[in-house]
Amino acid sequence: MSSPVFSSGEFMTALFDNNADFDDLAYRLFVFQQKKNDLYRRFTELLGVQAADVRQTKDIPFLPIGFFKTHEVKTGAFAPEVIFESSGTTGAATSRHLVKDASLYERSFTEGFERFYGPVSDYVIIGLLPAYLERRHSSLAYMVGNMIRRSGQPESGFYLYEHQALHTRLQQLEKARRKTLLIGVTFALLDFAERYRMQLQHTLVMETGGMKGRRQEWTRPEVHHYLEDRLGVSRVHSEYGMTELLSQAYSKGRGIFYPPLWMKVFLRDETDPLSVLPEPAAGTSRRGMINIIDLANVHSCGFIATDDIGRAYPDGGFEVLGRLDHSDLRGCSLMTA
Question: Rounded distance, CA 297 to CA 275, Å?
Fold first, then answer.
């Protein structure tokens, strides 16, 4: 690969283009961030990796996600328009994502959702996000709040612990056959389903992870089976996102996630953090630690080595199986599959 000239405007134009070459954009972003991101440059220098060493996309070094807790991960000098922080546990260090341009985040999560589910304006958006709404810097609350406004539906809105009001609202929407998205943190959906049994025929139920120590840990299949039984839906959908990413992957059932075109998952060896595994062959799957390229992370770092354990499939889908024992538990991912 030859060293490209990075044009921010050109890159942004290509970022959400269906015909864009992902590998080309990833390489351009790598070269740009290696030059302009002091932390990432020092990290790649310690690994001895230069642009000329990158023969294919999986050769790009992935920055350990823990650096978002200890350093400012910035590409270039800027005053952030918004700062997102992970929830963490009491006394634990939290990740901070310094976002230069909030409109880029908004476009990423809007287009990402709409490519899987259609226009946000088609839905009444109901957010059940206690704990996240009570924090000032939650990227998830920001995303759902923006979707509520973008929906343009007067019935859209947030609910904290008002389960009776939520039950009444969902009954009204079901009776009117209104297309509805109920997106909630897992422990809150379980609390609601425990109190109310429903038959939701026009409502898409989506869990975002997050037990927050509120309940005994359940596996994702256990959570989905319970919610499907109590809320009367055929499948529970899921969202995979985190403070350190500006893009999300979605599952329409069975816990298998698919990323948007500008996001891609790789697996690394669980015993060798620098070894990226080959993609699984047709008809097989592969287990390992999850690495993510998120091209929307233009102004932070687009190459992230997460602490999640996953399973990848040949069609680009992946499962989240859990988290390394030594890593801190974080609000959006306190679940094993």
Answer: 23
pLDDT tens digits for range 12-53: 899 999 999 999 999 999 999 999 999 999 999 999 999 889
pTM for this prediction: 0.92
d(CA 317, CA 165): 37
Cα separation, 124 vs 171, in Å, equals 13
H-only helix segments in 48-88: 67-70
Q: Distance (Å, rounded) from C-alpha 148 to C-alpha 158? A: 8
- For the stretch 184-202, pLDDT in tens is 999 999 999 999 999 999 9
| Measured distance CA(78)–CA(187) in Å, rounded | 37
DSSP, collapsed to helix, strand or coil, labels residue 6 as coil
H-run or E-run covering 311:
strand 303-312
Whats the size of the chain, residue-wise?
A: 337
- Distance separating alpha carbons of residues 141 and 86, to the nearest angstrom: 11
For residues 148-164, average pLDDT: 95
Residue type, 82: V
CA-nearest of 157, 158, 225, 164 to 190 is 225
Task: Report d(CA 155, CA 170) in Å as an integer.
Answer: 10
Query: How far does CA 15 lie from the centroid of its chain?
Result: 17
Each residue of 59-101: pLDDT tens digit?
A: 999 999 999 999 999 999 999 999 999 976 555 789 999 999 9
Nearest-angstrom CA–CA distance, 112 and 146: 14
231: part of which helix (H) or strand (E)? helix 220-231
**192, 203, 208, 114: which is closest to 159 by C-alpha?**
192
Is residue 145 within 8 A of residue 203, CB to CB? The reply is no
CA distance 331 to 243: 10
